[in-house]
Amino acid sequence: MADLTQTVLGVDWQSPVLLASGTCGYGEEYAELIPLDRIGGLVTKAVSLEPRMGNPPHRVAETPGGMINAIGLQNVGLSAFIRDKLPWLRENLSRARVLINVVGHTEKDFVEVVSGLDDQSGFLGYEINVSCPNVKDGTLFGADPETLAKLVAALRHETERPLVVKLTPNVPDIGLYARICEENGADGLSAINTFPGMLIDIDRRRPVIGNVSGGVSGPAILPMGVYLTWRARQATSLPIIGIGGIRSGSDALQYVLAGATLIQVGTALFVDPQVAIQVHQEIDDYCERNRVTLRQLVGALEIPGDPA
Amino acid sequence: MADLTQTVLGVDWQSPVLLASGTCGYGEEYAELIPLDRIGGLVTKAVSLEPRMGNPPHRVAETPGGMINAIGLQNVGLSAFIRDKLPWLRENLSRARVLINVVGHTEKDFVEVVSGLDDQSGFLGYEINVSCPNVKDGTLFGADPETLAKLVAALRHETERPLVVKLTPNVPDIGLYARICEENGADGLSAINTFPGMLIDIDRRRPVIGNVSGGVSGPAILPMGVYLTWRARQATSLPIIGIGGIRSGSDALQYVLAGATLIQVGTALFVDPQVAIQVHQEIDDYCERNRVTLRQLVGALEIPGDPA
Amino acid sequence: MHAPIRCWAEVRSLREAAQETWWLEVHAPAIAASAVPGQFLMAGFGLTQVGAPFLPRPFSVGWTDRATGTVGLLIREFGAGTRRLARLRDGDQLLLLGPLGRGFHIPAGRPTVCVGGGVGLAPFLFLASEARDSAAEVRLLYGERTADRVFDPVLIAELTGVEPIVYTEDGSIGRHGLVLDGIDVSDDPVLLGCGPTPMLNALEKFARERGSDLQVSVEEHMGCGIGTCQGCVVRGVDDSWLKSCTEGPVFGAGELAWPI
Amino acid sequence: MHAPIRCWAEVRSLREAAQETWWLEVHAPAIAASAVPGQFLMAGFGLTQVGAPFLPRPFSVGWTDRATGTVGLLIREFGAGTRRLARLRDGDQLLLLGPLGRGFHIPAGRPTVCVGGGVGLAPFLFLASEARDSAAEVRLLYGERTADRVFDPVLIAELTGVEPIVYTEDGSIGRHGLVLDGIDVSDDPVLLGCGPTPMLNALEKFARERGSDLQVSVEEHMGCGIGTCQGCVVRGVDDSWLKSCTEGPVFGAGELAWPI
Ligand SMILES: Cc1cc2nc3c(=O)[nH]c(=O)nc-3n(C[C@H](O)[C@H](O)[C@H](O)COP(=O)(O)OP(=O)(O)OC[C@H]3O[C@@H](n4cnc5c(N)ncnc54)[C@H](O)[C@@H]3O)c2cc1C
Ligand SMILES: Cc1cc2nc3c(=O)[nH]c(=O)nc-3n(C[C@H](O)[C@H](O)[C@H](O)COP(=O)(O)OP(=O)(O)OC[C@H]3O[C@@H](n4cnc5c(N)ncnc54)[C@H](O)[C@@H]3O)c2cc1C
Ligand SMILES: Cc1cc2nc3c(=O)[nH]c(=O)nc-3n(C[C@H](O)[C@H](O)[C@H](O)COP(=O)(O)O)c2cc1C
Ligand SMILES: Cc1cc2nc3c(=O)[nH]c(=O)nc-3n(C[C@H](O)[C@H](O)[C@H](O)COP(=O)(O)O)c2cc1C
Ligand code: FES
Ligand code: FES
């Protein structure tokens, strides 16, 4: 067994592999299928202040090499989350870390969710979702530099827990947003959320997805995610959680070499729930075979012609 | 045979299917494989003022559901294009229309290429490439509203031929750029160019692509292209050429329903050169089966709940 | 309900049972052992095989043989995923997740009328075969548009021991008309429905008017199949969204907002 | 050069010829009729089949039988695409584009020494089999790392009529050492090389030092295979980029910037 341990966001991680927000619910269902305590942890489905109904069906469909979803951030809302979901996480996970994915319509929404959660136990910190393409105001916070700066600063004021901001891929320069997060006190970045996309049923001449458009995820976006992770890496020194299209150790290692300290597996879970364990195992095998620790691989991409 | 004719960019088109820039060279090679005069036409490889060397290999590689390329706009330059390439197009194509894809490092570059070409014969108009992710300044013009506005206005001043601007997908709101093109005198839009991406060879710990990053194309980006076409359609009344991941009539019709009048087939040509003919045929079959003309389908997407 | 099982299953046989309609048998003992009629499974090709449809597809458990560990699926070609499944060969491997969801609930002693439209036949093959050795009376009504779509009746009888009453819309085989026409509610049976939405809507109206108990199995696009993604919702009677993968796919008619 | 042909070709046979190394025969009469040694083809699965690697992959024409319209390809498993090809079954269809590129140019009467490293053997199988009925003398040197990688020598003899001189790096079969060791230039042969880059670099040095004529076949990632995408460039002697799909894959050593 190779050394995959790291200290990130102020705590020790036994594995760099997390389950991505929205693809693992609140953990419970996957606990029956895989030993969650053997991986790094999970990120919950988005939690908003009030419960959200979400979008009409169809909410998911396959796209070439991936899928599109427009769940619309359906979730039970802050109070029900604390009452019904957090206890399970607290009681059933011991080594796996939990980040709570947070959304809001307004800065105040975000702040209230974080302040409402902050004195609870059972989780490590927050992943701030400013990048959901499936609700009207979903990327409002993620694509406008000033709004983002204000939001991050406000949340920083609210909590001492790790604050990770999940970036949208849909900007000309992700480095700009990465720096804004760093300057305003974020502890880490998640890159990336889904790409806005659309599928049309040509026989009915209607969108396949009830919400008209949705977010594209899965292997199709892997090269974009690796690129954006690498670009974010060059812009900041914050730890980056690499996300997008990961379905193997080799995919995950591309993110790690590009500069990610942790990675998340999302859509691939739908294809094979065991993927999280397998990704961990394959990273382990690679490190073992190459006699390196995971820490040595983070950002270790060699660019030919670059001064070493 | 259904009615696929349209009048777009001031001329009649017998087919909505074009071959995309960079994937069909200057037409000659495909003429041996498919009857070019049966489709709408083609867009040449980018032409720059001076010849360009392009990037070191590898320049292409497969990605999940698509490919990545970083050719680096290698091309023979304006004079050699006029001397060696344009004559073939002039002499060998009669019904297929030709757009010349134009790139430059500076506004002056673009202007000189257009003014250098304008009194030549053998082509219809220009596709202005402000969206190449594979050269340092490739999306400079496409992602900055003011620079784009100035460039389009300057080119409009230079030519009365159809001026189509090829948009980058990598912006939070493509509608903004679509409107800028329209306001500054463009005749049409092409949506979309490739997404920046990166592939890493985990054994060598190096980028697979010689240029480090490249542009992702192919089926993987189909839902993004359809979405961006639809967004651009809502922002302007300019005709839109839909591009990205098309490999069947059904893919092409998604773009048409979203608002594209013409479409381009790119990467799919590498998989099967006949795809252009097949896409045309499948659109024809669909129109025949549904007793509609192509014109009736453009933008005919029905959004449930929308007032008709 | 059992925890779902993730397993690779070997294809044992695939036979064409009607036009573009296939009967697939796979070896999946753990699923065969625990599935109940109305439950489904997600069938896919995993993440390492090149060139498969990406997401797994939901299919009703169509039959089980616990002795041999066999699970039977009825598969009709629809899009890319089902077309790929129709090209499986013996010995190929499928990645299964199941059994999933809530099955039919059949009160002891009540006769059941199963109303299957098209591939909606699948869960009733399983249900009828399970009931074979019990005293319960199972009547099977099965509708298709045309004769060439009708699932091989010999195979149905072999799998279930029940002879279906077949309806075709054009009367090209069996009885002419809609499957609803054949429902006899005189002995107060439980009605079970699975099939296209228009059929389910008509069935609900029929059952409501006659005061009959009705359970329906619904179809919605699915992501995870286990309740985490919220992808598969249908509208509940109180206007909330119900997850068809865990709260369904079988619902009591009273739980849903009709027409669906 | 003929215009390339695009055609669907049926798999006639696939046999394992060494560890992870396959001999594939497909029915493609038009390509068999016009290919010359050193040319290649692009082999893929087309756009409508679900679940294949996306882009076609380049392979040297490894053999042809004009009478039966057969084309033979030597395929070594490397990544997803070649692994998929290794799972083809008789009757499957491949989409081919070929023959492509410039082949070897063999001056009449000159003996040739073919130096194949690994799958670099492929074009020489074709070359040797073509030379079978001519007076030309073809010597075939073939190197692999280990014995289990060595392409079945019986099959080589059957296909070409030539007995290769086999080298393995570990000496586990054939001669011990590098394939270069076996080159005899005493009768001023034309050297032809195909194989891994380090081998080609060593071969170029060897040929330059001895003043021998050398042609090499190079490998680069390809998009179109027909000269339009500029994807497949290698560095030419004047520092320009040469397209290996149309200006190659066979180059005179003097055309390239060494080491490659
Ligand atoms: C609980 C349940 C049980 C089912 N049982 C059976 C069965 O026993 N036999 C059978 O032939 N079919 C059954 N279906 C329908 C079957 O899942 C679809 O025909 C199949 O998913 C279509 O996939 P495709 O790739 O061929 O079509 P595509 O249209 O190419 O699929 C595109 C996407 O849409 C989804 N999709 C399309 N149609 C449906 C649908 N009707 N239901 C759910 N998702 C859909 C697919 O899963 C995929 O993600 C069942 C569906 C559900 C939800
Ligand atoms: C002119 C020519 C002739 C060839 N002849 C043969 C032959 O006769 N037998 C044989 O086994 N192999 C041959 N190769 C190599 C063969 O094309 C590669 O092994 C194959 O493309 C790898 O595909 P993959 O999907 O298995 O690997 P992956 O690494 O998964 O492929 C990823 C991408 O890289 C490209 N790629 C990777 N390695 C190579 C390579 N060496 N050359 C070109 N592209 C590559 C693939 O085409 C694909 O686009 C030849 C290559 C060229 C250029
Ligand atoms: C069904 C679904 C629901 C999602 N819900 C959320 C969410 O609530 N919050 C969030 O930040 N990201 C959400 N995402 C995005 C994922 O967390 C992830 O960023 C994205 O899917 C890319 O990773 P993947 O390709 O591995 O799936 C969701 C994705 C999917 C597929
Ligand atoms: C190898 C290659 C070269 C390309 N070169 C150009 C170019 O010179 N100019 C340009 O505007 N777009 C270029 N493109 C982008 C395509 O024209 C097209 O916008 C993109 O590939 C998406 O379409 P597709 O998915 O059908 O390939 C290139 C694409 C590829 C794959
Ligand atoms: S399919 Fe994911 S919740 Fe039902
Ligand atoms: S592979 Fe396209 S130019 Fe050579």
Name the CATH architecture of chain A: Alpha-Beta Barrel
Count of discrete alpha- or pi-helical segments spanning 4 or more residues of chain C: 5
Assign a percent range to the helix content of chain C: 10-25%
Low-pLDDT windows of residues of chain A: none
Helix content of chain A: 25-40%
Shape of chain C: globular
CATH topology of the largest domain in chain C: Rossmann fold
- Major sheet of chain C: size, sense and barrel closure? 7 strands, antiparallel
What would CATH call the homologous superfamily of the largest domain in chain C? Nucleotide-binding domain of ferredoxin-NADP reductase (FNR) module
Number of structural units classed as domains of chain A: 1
Instruction: Give the full name of the CATH homologous superfamily of chain A.
Output: Aldolase class I
Structural Rg of chain C: 17 Å
Helix/strand class of chain A: alpha/beta
The sequence of SSEs of chain A as H and E is: EEEHEEEHEHEHHEHEEEEEHEHEHHH
Q: Which SSEs are present, and which pair or pack?
A:
The complex is a heterotetramer, with 2 copies of chain A (308 residues) and 2 copies of chain C (260 residues).
Chain A: E1 6-8, E2 11-13, E3 17-19, H1 28-31, E4 41-43, E5 60-63, E6 66-69, H2 78-92, E7 97-102, H3 107-117, E8 125-129, H4 140-143, H5 145-158, E9 163-166, H6 174-183, E10 188-191, E11 195-197, E12 200-201, E13 206-207, E14 214-217, H7 222-235, E15 240-243, H8 249-258, E16 262-265, H9 268-271, H10 275-290, H11 294-297
Parallel strand pairs in A: 3-4, 3-16, 4-7, 7-8, 8-9, 9-10, 10-15, 15-16
Antiparallel strand pairs in A: 1-2, 5-6, 6-14, 11-14, 12-13
Chain C: E1 5-18, E2 21-27, H1 29-34, E3 40-44, E4 57-60, E5 63-65, E6 70-76, H2 80-85, E7 93-100, E8 112-117, H3 122-131, E9 138-144, H4 153-160, E10 165-168, E11 175-176, E12 190-194, H5 197-210, E13 214-217, E14 233-235, E15 241-243, E16 250-252
